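Technical annex, item 7. During the second reporting period the consortium partners agreed on a shared format for inverse folding records so that results from different sites could be compared directly. Each record opens with the tokenized structure and is followed by the designed sequence. A conforming record, contributed by the partner at site C, is shown below for reference.
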């Protein structure tokens, strides 16, 4: 759920996009500690901010296409973890979970998008 998004358009066909979203996810954690296995549900929620460079391709006569060039910055430090006290204290656990959740979120936000020329709205591209 996007909270805010700003787009700056330089003279070239590249855009710099900054986005802030409120993320809420439940992650199933399966673990093994000292030979004993278990599982728990971990709640991850909070703000996720990112900045990326995208390219707009206007070579198609029927639509504009936007594709990701680079992700310049991802700030997941605001994500809060709740639950799974059994494994929450393991060094690096919180950062691994944040990386696991933030990666797919960035991919979903910056998936290739297309805008038919007769429409103001972007949508997922039907062709690569």
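Designed sequence (site C submission):
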């Amino acid at each position: 759920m996007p909270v805010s998004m700003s787009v700056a358009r330089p003279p070239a066909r590249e855009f710099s996009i900054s986005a802030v979203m409120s993320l809420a996810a439940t992650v199933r954690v399966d673990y093994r500690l000292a030979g004993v296995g278990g599982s728990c549900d971990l709640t991850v929620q909070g703000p996720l901010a990112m900045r990326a460079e995208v390219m707009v391709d206007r070579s198609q006569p029927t639509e504009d296409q936007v594709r990701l060039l680079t992700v310049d910055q991802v700030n997941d430090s605001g994500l809060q973890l709740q639950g799974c006290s059994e494994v929450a204290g393991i060094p690096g656990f919180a950062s691994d979970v944040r990386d696991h959740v933030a990666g797919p979120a960035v991919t979903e936000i910056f998936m290739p998008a297309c805008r038919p020329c007769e429409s103001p709205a972007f949508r997922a591209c039907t062709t690569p």
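The chain has a mean pLDDT of 78. The helical segments are 85-88, 93-109. All partners now use this format for quarterly exchanges.
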